[in-house]
Amino acid sequence: MSSNEVKLRSKSGSIAAYSALVYIVVIFFAILAVIPFWYMFMNATWDTYSIQAGVKLWPNFGHIIEQVKANWAYLSNRSTFSFALGFKNSLIITVSSTALTVYFSALTAYGLSVYEFKGRKTIFTIIVGVMMVPTAVNITGFYRLMNAMGLLGTRWPLILPAIAAPATVFFIKQYLDTSLSKEIIEAARIDGAGEFYTFNKVCLPIMVPALATQGIFSFLGSWNNFFAPSILLTKQELKTLPLMVSMLYGDRYTDYGAIYIGLSASVFPIIIAYAFLQRYIIQGVSAGGVKE
Amino acid sequence: MARGTNTSSRHKGMSYTKFGYLFIAPFVIVYCLFSLYPLLTTFWYSGAFMQNTNASFWGFSNKEVFYDRYLDLIKIYSDFDETGINKSDYNKIKKYFAVQDLADQRDPINPEGLEAIVNNTDLSQATRDAVQQCIDTGDISYIANNEAVVEDLTTWNAGYTDLGNTVLGLLDGVNTAATEAATVAESEDSEDSITAEDILTSDNFASFLDTLQNGEFDEGQTMLMNYLADYVGAASLYDYFTAADVSVDADSFYFICANLNAPNAVLSDGSSVSAVSVPFMNDLVTYLNANTWSATVPSLSSYSEFENYHNLDKDLHSDEEILYADLESLYNMGLIIKQVKLVEDNGALVQSDVPAENILVAMRQFIDTQYVSDPVKTAAAQQIGNLNNYLSDSLNASRYELIRDGIDIDSYITFNGDFDVNKYLQFKALIGLDTVLTMDKYEELDAARKQKNVEKAQADLVDQQAKLPEVQAAYDAAVASGDQEAIDDAFGKLRAVEVAISTDESTIKRPDGIFTKADATKQYIYVGFDNFAQIFGNKNRFNYVAGAFFTTAVMWIIGFIPQILLALILSAWFTDTKLKLKGLNLMKALMYLPNVITAATIAIFFRRLFSYSTGASASPAQLFLDAIGHDRINFLAKPWPTRLIVCFINFWMWYGNTMIVLIAGITSISESLYESAQLDGANSFQTYTKITMPLLRPILLYTLVTSMIGGLQMYDIPFNLNQYPALVSFNGTYIRCSQTVLMYVNNLAFGKSSIKQVGIASAVSIILFIVTTILSVLIFFLMRDKDAAAAAKAKKLARKAGANR
Asked: What does the pLDDT read at residue B516?
């Protein structure tokens, strides 16, 4: 009896030690995940000479605003980096492609889930199959197709293909199969609603949770996209934010404060959005894994 | 679902099923057009000899044009008198291509340029109307056939160009004046002895000011741009910045500054100015600080002043941008010696109280305020220049010859760098060669030519082989005699015969026809598996491709292993109910954060973190090395450190994602399994290995496959981390240490090289596609749970049996 108690106590003691170790490791990795961004933001508040003098993990107290302004002014003078332009371009491409992805994926998933037409199983299997096809391998063919269609030098090559997003269709269809009841559609039909009316006015609102999650991922994917824009957008006035950031490349730009503020400016909007949406994002990632 | 309800709903919904096709139609159409079609064409292009992405053809129907263009005319006329083709007719085709080349080169009806001409109010309304017609119809004859228009354009352009030349002269004057001042400084061996006086009294400066004040101009800034572009255009500057480390002493510094315009000048110790590298900048800062020049040092890192007056609307590539910045900084430094107190005041140059002013800046600003350019007129002038070059007799005799023969060549030519097969075929029909020079004819000529070459080679082979024993015997005799001269002579003869035999043999195997692919830089033809043969047959090419795959795979695997291990550990902890960890959601959110940030930003940040310099401006990594007393290391110029940085970034960005996926997988495992295990006395480790791991297998499989597909497409991080990574030997060939497959494809198809090897790039893409597919399937089958596979098979069999029944 007493030996059992001792065993229990020592066990709880070892669990405490174990969980302390776990906390240390977990906190270490949590800090590791954040520190580069912290470092960027802090350095953005310093001038080049201070940055050169040593690692800065704290803000430039007392001069934050003026130094940020000075760094920003310096950055704005550079002909290749225009935050406003990059942000605008990224926003145009991302918002329109996300809207297209979400709407048309919902439409396709609905079509596959609700209507039992001939060959729908085959089509769904094909969609699941092409999810795994590496998207970048067709770049030479895509580039030449865009050239032939006269779309090079415009934003369309990055927007139009968003209509067909196999992975998004897959996830929305999984959602529909479990959460859309056919009775609602039947009821709408009995009330005399057309099929597209039923989809747009009755079923689309039901899908909102799934659409929101998929929309967030589609938005992030498009916002962070680098490979295709770097090949397709050669005009300065169309370049997206990642392409602008890529121009900060180069060791001999000696104004480090300006580089850090450029990096910070590109990271900041994402971090803000992430702070609000992280719950949905993480749920989405979890769902993606379990579905498989 | 119960069978009964299923049939009833199907029965009811029967009339609606056709809507399903409507709903999925947009997806299917867009997918086929934007993903499937490009993929198929990539397959198609992988079988094409295609070196330029600007050709506008959708298939290989241009074979005939290709053959026409690269037919060896001499071969035809020397070998085949009976071809039935009139030489003068054939020359017309040759001239047609010459005119097309010129049109491509000059781009005489570039719409933007013509728009500028239309908007140029200096020109008469009639002229502008004619030009507008050219834009509307895409036909140049509205200008070409109208002498009045041509004359109007030419006259205006000549005046405008004179103006530009004058401004250019002014700028030369500025430069020479400043250089002279520097030379004076050099000879007097003192940086303080230069005054405004020195410059103002120099002969050249006087004449410069003369021109400046007497000229009556109101434009020319573009010429200033041209001047600067010329100045920057020296590609060697980039090279000399990236050359070996050279530190600079005081004497060299002055010499370099005075000779910035002459990168080939030689320093006192024999090294050239062009051997100066990046450390020069840093050493310079150090030197200047130690010599009380500190007031001017801050302006070294700033070229914004220069940017103000350049104010380039020109789109510079990132490389040029760096080059440009360097040039400005260096030039700025050079001007410190020539620093004088001179600024522009009411249109005149006067002494200034501001110490940081320098004369070149002042003069440039003065010119800029005096001469403001009009971009429309400059564009118009440029376009008129192109038009003139296209139309002018001296440059384009072929065009005039065709016009003289009554062929309105301009209506058969495209002017935008494209090549219109149909227009060409129309042209051929017009001169009556469409029935003579057909595909069949080419094949016939080609076959005959090959036949003839083979026969010739066979005859020669017989001769040479007959000769062989004779020369061999002569050589043996010479060796026996021991006379060195005789041996050399006999050996030469023997060798000649042997070479002739091997040449003949290869000719018989692959005789020359009338076509040659060698010149085909603009067109492409179907070559079957030639591109693949080139990749697998050429050792260097194979090593580049295999090296790119190796690099990609290595960088993926080294990042993936710690990523999956850490994710497994963390997910085990996060789901361990005994530990009762707090704040898990926050930790999860923080660890996932790197995954949502733009990879390009992260790569640029890491580049900054590890960048290298010898001077005061050090990156954190270099500061750390300083702190532990280690020599500085140029991480990004060494292969493995560069690769490991890429691996680390991948690991760091993705372990959070993998962890969340695994946590989701673990939490979906039935709680009762754990409870019964606990009752049986299993500890955490045992439950993990015996229950969690086996049940996680499908999710691990999913993670592995998706990570591999993503990993093989790695691009953003290595590309942004270092675009010109260090060379490393791979199987005897030097490859770029962190160049991934996609970077290689991009380089081949869209790189800076003037020859774009689209065919080979497509072939590499296809190999990537095949490798990815094979690996995915392989992993899937290797890692698939055997029990699950057996169960699935049994289920399938059962279903089949049920269906049969």
From this structure: 58
